Amino acid sequence: MARRPTSLLRLAVAVLVAAAAAASDARSVTLTLTPPPLPVLPIPSAAQLRWQRREVIMFFHFGMNTFTDSEWGTGSEDPALFRPAALNATQWMDAARAVGASLVILVAKHHDGFCLWPSRYTDHSVRASPWRGGRGDVVREFVDAARARGLDAGIYLSPWDRHDRRYGDEVAYNEYYEAQLHELLTGYGSVSEIWFDGAKGKNATNMTYHFQEWFQTVKQLQRSINIFSDDGPDVRWVGDEKGFAGTTCWSTVNRSMITIGEAGIEKYLNSGDPRGRDWVPPECDVSIRPGWFWHKNETAKPLSQLLEIYYNSVGRNCVLLLNAPPNTTGLVEAADVARLRELWSAVSTIFGTDLAAGSAARASSERGAGFAARNVVDGREDTYWAPAAEDGHGRWDGYWIELRRRSRRPFNVVRVQEHVALGQRVERHAVYVDGAPVANGTTVGHKRLHRLPCAVAGRTVRIWVAAPRGPPLLSAVGLHHDPFDVADAM
What we know:
This is alpha-L-fucosidase. By secondary structure, the chain is α/β, with parallel strands linked by helices. Helix content is about 25%, strand content about 20%.
């Protein structure tokens, strides 16, 4: 018993020595970590990054045009026409989930000025209709159904209004529009995206919109929201309604070069600007039908065409905004839902298996601990390969990363992704399989998909990149097999 205190003292000393050694080792490890490279400005906000990773989102065009078989209404329609007997917003959400969407956007007011919520600032709304006895609110049902299904909600509010008598009076109409923004952004909970459409007819009444006041109001009311317009400030129009981004597609533009609603800016919006000072990535809006609103004589695009749209939107550094218009009963057509499900099944079939998984990776160089070539095949979004800092001296045209595959299963899709949180860098790239070129392109961004004309089964796949804006940071290289016939695509 007399020796026990001595034994305990020795044990305590040993524990303290071990802890000190462990702390010293930890400090040593910390000191040897290589820091990440500096960002290449501009870079996305956290909200923009979340939006980009959604990849597919949904649009719902529904309103007076649904009942008049129109695309652009006149503004003189009788609210009594609006009577969707079976409106079920939950069914709309199920349609969105069928295509893997995580965000849904409702056209709350289109150009005809009819409001799908009981706005206090106009008599041209659902309050004047027979639907729900004049006590209905499509916006409320929409956002509630979205949240119940785990989806985020967005709102489209048309600046062009063919009904309201204040349109054309700059101050009065801008005050009216701003009041409706307040209604929608304070009365329906969190809104993830708001759409400002610059479209209006050639003979429309002359009207100056106070976009900058609107934008600042939106940010004041909902801090984390993304604002869409021709020039953002958070998300830009892609310049067409086909769902196709440019083969070169930068997330950067100079907003000072863009006037919302002005013709002639489409090409600039489609390709972006490598010298752009503003991070405003593009959104590809397209309907699964020929029109934006439901028309009895129209049907959904075939799967081959929708897949081609996917490759040319998500596969070109964009988010795909896919419209599915509810019909006059207030439901998305069963055939349209089936087509959405078919599209998502095809996407899941193609990208559900990565034939690059398990590959050994090497590169022209590696920056250091945490930036290894193998990061491009680890299946994580937060890791990436970065070349050594000295690799940039005189070697802007010489970066490469190579995968050595374990299997010889054929693939016909190559996926390349940048770590865009630190900026978009790749200006040109090429893909080689066993030394032979199979694909090439310009920008990469969040995701670039190359659909090869025929399947290849090579052992080594090398990605060569030129990145004069800064060392390339690649987060993923994937190889996939697409069993769907390329020849049938549009």
